[in-house]
Each structure stands twice: as C-alpha cells, then as structure tokens.
Specification:
alpha/beta, globular, Rossmann fold, 2 domains, two-stranded antiparallel sheet, 334 residues, N-(1-d-carboxylethyl)-l-norvaline Dehydrogenase, domain 2, eight-stranded mixed beta sheet
Length: 334
C-alpha cells in the first residue's frame, strides 16, 4: 500500500517504521528540509536518536506526497491540522483513506480530528476516515517494543483495513472499533490528565494521590463521553484507560513532562519553551474546559488544571481546593 505520512516527527516516523516493517511503501512529508534530509540521507529520527528503515523516503513537496498516496496518515498537532489540510487539498486526486494518529480537540468548535478532516476535504476525495489510537510512546515503537492500539472508524470494514495495515505478530498488535468518537476522545482527553499527573509528581505527591486522581479522571472522561454520545464502554479499552495509564505514569509522556515542570515551579511559557515537542494537553485543556462550561458538565479536575495553566493559580492552592470540596458518595459519581 502506498502511504503518505504527513508529519516527520517522532510519532510519524515510529508509525512509518511499523508500515515499512509490514512491507508498505512509505513516503513522509514534512516542511522542514533538515528533517527530510535526515530521513533520506541518514535514515534517522533525530528527536529519538533512532534509525529507521532505509526504504522510508521523505519529501518537502506536497504535490509529490499526495500523488504517491493511496492512504494519507496525518500525524501533525491539532493546531496545524487545518493548514496542513489546506496545503494538501489542491493535490488530492481521487478518493483516499485518511488515517488520524494525532490526539486532540479543537478549542471553540470542540471538533475531533476526524470531524475537521470530514469538514475540509470534499466527500468525493474521502474513501474512509480512521483513527489510530492507544497507549503508545514513539520511543518504544521505533525500537520495535510490544505495543497495542485501536483502529476506529464508523465503517467497520475501514477500521479492519487499517488494522490489517499496521498489525504484525512481532511487536505491534491492533484491535478494531466502530466507536470513532470514543476512541478519539480518549486519546485527546488523557493528555489533560497526563499534565495533571505531572503536576502532582512535581508537587512531590506520591502513588496514593496519583491513583486517586487517575480514578477520578475516568469519572470526568465518562461524563464527557456521555454528553457527546460516545460509547462509555470504549473508555475501558486501549484508547481510554490504557492511554490514560501510560501517559500519567511514564516520563516518556511530553504532557507528563510539561506538568512536572509546572508542578516544580516553572511557568507555562518557560515550560513550553523548554519542550522539544508539542504539548497537546494544553490546547485540549482549553477545549475541554470551554465544553464543560457550555454544556454545564461538572469537571472539577479539568477546571483545576485550567486554573493552573491559564489562570496562573499555584498548584498547591488548586490541590487544596480540590481536597476541600464537599464529601460525596462514589456509588453514583457526580
């Protein structure tokens, strides 16, 4: 299968390696000439200091990239997704399968990535839209370490098609799902709570606090799933609790790293300046906070993270406020 990967960052190249290992023909598109040169000449993912298969090629020419593609895999931050689509649109010929492997929600519109693709790409150019999500760090995938993800589409056959593209018996297992909404929401929302997990660790709190926090995070995710019409059962799969666990407990997580720096005393500007990769949890916190206010959803943890990140309230003050809330029953979380 001829696959064009939009985005030559660490996750884009890790997934390119999986596709190459599965004997697909991969062309990576990136606007950065140095990134493209590192792929073509050195066969290197610089961000992870890891080698990639030599048959993975790269280009800065979007027309070349689109002409190559039967399948287009988007692995770019949500902030630049619309501009990336606008650049590609004039060169999309025929119907393509679009795969989203990024994780985020757009502020203001509250749209998931698949919804943005469906809005911007003419229907005649869309064969299928599929999301690939789950507990996965590029650092491990690019080394061929065991990983399991979910391919989701409202069209079951499309989900199974992408499942077959990525699944292999050596290190990369893929499940399928028809709950596209739930899978994308899980991948996006967990970044918010990974930020908070880092803040908790940065404040010097321990395992007890982190376990309690993650449990209550699931409650807030469940409320948002219910409001937006996603299947709550999806929350307990790889793209929900699986991704929540890996991002809240691993130092590989850029969202955890950012939260840890904020919890240790750095402000948001210092933190973002020190990060080498995009911190999606910041933007998704804004979107989820806006949604909770518009829809009148009680999300005290999301509110707390928003206060720390955007209102510049000290983490210890916000944590104290969370702990001082009225006692309640856990039988029917509210």
């Amino acid at each position: 299968m001829n696959t064009t990967v939009i985005g030559g960052g660490s996750w884009g190249l890790a997934l390119s390696k999986v596709l190459s290992d599965n004997h697909h023909n991969v062309l990576v598109y990136d606007i950065n000439e140095k990134t493209v040169d590192n792929i073509n000449r050195l066969h290197l993912c610089v961000q992870l200091d890891a080698y990639i298969p030599k048959d993975i090629k790269a280009t800065t020419n979007i027309e070349t990239a689109m002409n190559h593609a039967d399948v287009v895999l988007f692995v770019v931050p949500t902030k630049v997704l619309r501009s990336a689509l606008e650049e590609a649109l004039p060169f999309i010929k025929g119907a393509k399968t679009f795969i989203n492997a990024a994780k985020g929600i757009e502020p203001e519109s509250f749209k998931r990535i698949s919804e943005i693709i469906a809005e911007m790409v003419p229907e005649s150019n869309i064969k299928h839209i599929v999301s690939l999500s789950g507990p996965s760090h590029a650092e491990e995938v690019i080394k061929g370490m065991t990983t399991a993800l979910t391919a989701a589409s409202e069209d079951e056959a499309a989900a199974q098609f992408v499942q077959s593209m990525f699944h292999n018996q050596q290190y990369f297992r893929v499940y399928s799902s028809t709950d596209l909404k739930g899978v994308e929401l899980g991948g996006a929302l967990k970044n918010i709570f990974a930020l908070a997990a880092g803040i908790i660790r940065g404040q010097g709190l321990g395992d007890n606090a982190l376990a309690a926090f993650m449990s209550r995070s699931l409650v807030e995710m469940h409320k948002i799933y219910a409001h937006l019409g996603a299947d709550p059962e999806t929350l307990y799969g790889l793209s929900g609790i699986g991704d929540l666990i890996v991002t809240c407990t691993s130092e590989h997580s850029r969202n955890f790293q950012a939260g840890y720096k904020i919890g240790s005393g750095k402000n948001l500007e210092e933190t973002l300046k020190s990060m080498t990769m995009v911190v999606e949890g910041i933007r998704t916190t804004q979107a989820a906070y806006q949604l909770s206010k518009v829809a009148d959803i009680d999300t005290p943890i999301i509110d707390a993270i928003y206060d720390v990140v955007f209102n510049k309230i000290e983490p210890k003050v916000v944590l104290s406020h969370l702990l001082s809330r009225d006692s309640k029953s856990e039988d029917k979380p509210k």
